[in-house]
Amino acid sequence: MNQDRVEGNWLQFKGKVKEQWGKLTDDDLDVIAGKRDQLLGKIQERHGVTLEEAEKQLKDWHERNPTNFFERY
């Protein structure tokens, strides 16, 4: 897949992520760069939750905002 398209999709996706987890910074999202495990780690770190809670939050968010972003890239 074209790298520009991946980056464009991540820009759209990270806006939605920031709406949900407001304590994540732009720098955090740049580091995450579309990696699910990185997103979970930053949710844990910034919001002070366990890995299990971060996974639950991400799963719940994904059900409300269906996307296959992580499966595609």
UniProtKB/TrEMBL annotation:
Domain CsbD-like: 4-56
Superkingdom, taxonomy of origin: Bacteria
Protein's name in the database: CsbD family protein
Phylogenetic placement of the source organism: Bacteria, Pseudomonadati, Pseudomonadota, Betaproteobacteria, Burkholderiales
UniProt xrefs under InterPro entries: CsbD, UPF0337_stress_rsp, YjbJ, YjbJ_sf
Family classification: Belongs to the UPF0337 (CsbD) family.
Organism: Polaromonas naphthalenivorans (strain CJ2)
